[in-house]
Write a structure and sequence with these properties.
The complex is a heterotetramer, with two copies of chain A and two copies of chain B. By secondary structure, chain A is an alpha+beta fold. Chain A has one domain: Aldehyde Oxidoreductase, domain 3, CATH 3.90.1170.40. Chain A has two helices and eight strands; from the N terminus they run E-E-E-E-E-H-E-E-H-E. Helix content of chain B is 25%, strand content 21%. The chains are: A alpha+beta, B alpha+beta. Chains A and C meet through strand 2 and helix 2 of A and strand 2 and helix 2 of C.
Chain lengths: 125, 97, 125, 97
């Protein structure tokens, strides 16, 4: 299965480096990191809330769409739910593709879609 | 003519559909509830149901304006007729990532 | 120092996950992976040769240019020299930026420049 | 008038500049050497030196055509006069990454 989705409680830890999938010439990993301020206000972290079953389904659906559209090899999507402190990782996307161009394009497109169509909300704490 | 029921006199009147709408994030915080129930005079389209939510829960107005309804975990078209038995959710402006 | 360059003998191993630099909202990591064929021919790996001092200087220079141009927080560049077997990583670029857009753009631009202006050559084995 | 040395008769003739050019990858493989030395009648620009390389090492012609010269580890402009004491390298089509 080319697309894997996981919603995780709290901050995302270090990822175990999986072997590269055959055919992969480029693996691109994106870590979204909680910054210590929101709209100029100091915060201690972000609290994420999700409509879980739909969020999982949407992440999977968007992933599948982009895998097909860009001819990707694999997509691994992980997002935090609950509290994530400053300087920790709350979102991770790993894309494998034959070449870098399609991987970078798909990464950008995925994050646009995430911020538009995936029922996850954050609240500064 | 909504509300006007022709024929079959003597039967019990048709039940008004009742919609339960899940709320999350800012919308849920706005009224301190994780869902609302809407009684509607008839089966609604997506846009009609949004109108009913605003009528019955004015505090949700801005959330409904920027939001979309999801039906069975997929976004619904504005003119789609919504089954009251479906899982319905108000998806306001999301902010993941 | 925002830009770090390293030429490494052989395949690049797993990277120790450094803490995120303050200000970082997005960390993007690119792994270039050796594919088991070149021009349709099966190979066992790639042998990289570099004009080392110039390669290091060019990687540093290109990194500095892109850090300034895109307002990046940090750039970490590592490239293999010598033999790298199939399915192993021969190039890694890690970019930290406040937001993803500039990081993705800089990553694409860096790799274009690498393939044009950095004296490293590969030979299929 | 290259090669014509005016004045100061009786002195030894002016030494011809000698350029050492480092080779890498395919260019080095083409002639089985990691450098070549070029004797030139006078100090050369970048393009002139490339011309001399082709003249003296015809096997490098295609490499020189697609390549650039680096002088002291930076790419040189076509019309830059090159110091024979500099570190000079032929950078053919690169293929890192």
């Amino acid at each position: 299965m080319a697309v894997r989705v996981r919603l995780t409680d709290g901050a995302l830890g270090g990822m175990v480096r999986a072997p590269f999938t055959p055919g992969c010439g480029a693996r691109i990993m994106f870590d979204g990191v909680v910054r210590p301020e929101e709209d100029g206000q100091g915060i201690t972290g972000l609290e994420y809330e999700a409509y879980r079953p739909m969020a999982e389904q949407q992440l999977e659906r968007i992933g599948q769409e982009l895998v097909e559209q860009h001819g990707l090899i694999s997509m691994n999507i992980e997002h935090s739910i609950g509290f994530v402190p400053n300087f920790a990782c709350s979102f991770r996307l790993v894309i494998e593709s034959a070449h870098r161009k399609e991987g970078l394009r798909a990464m950008d497109a995925f994050i646009d879609r995430l911020k538009q169509d995936v029922p996850i909300w954050k609240c500064a704490k | 003519m909504p509300g006007c029921l022709w024929g079959r006199t003597g039967e019990s009147s048709v039940e008004m559909p009742s919609y339960t709408i899940l709320l999350f994030g800012p919308a849920s915080a706005a009224i301190g509830q994780d869902r609302v129930t809407i009684e509607s005079p008839s089966q609604c389209t997506c846009d009609e149901l949004k109108g009913q939510v605003v009528l019955q829960f004015p505090a949700l107005e801005t959330h409904v304006q920027v939001g979309r309804l999801a039906v069975d975990r997929g976004f619904a078209n504005a003119d789609a007729l919504i089954d009251p038995a479906a899982e319905i959710a108000l998806i306001t402006m999301v902010s993941g990532g």
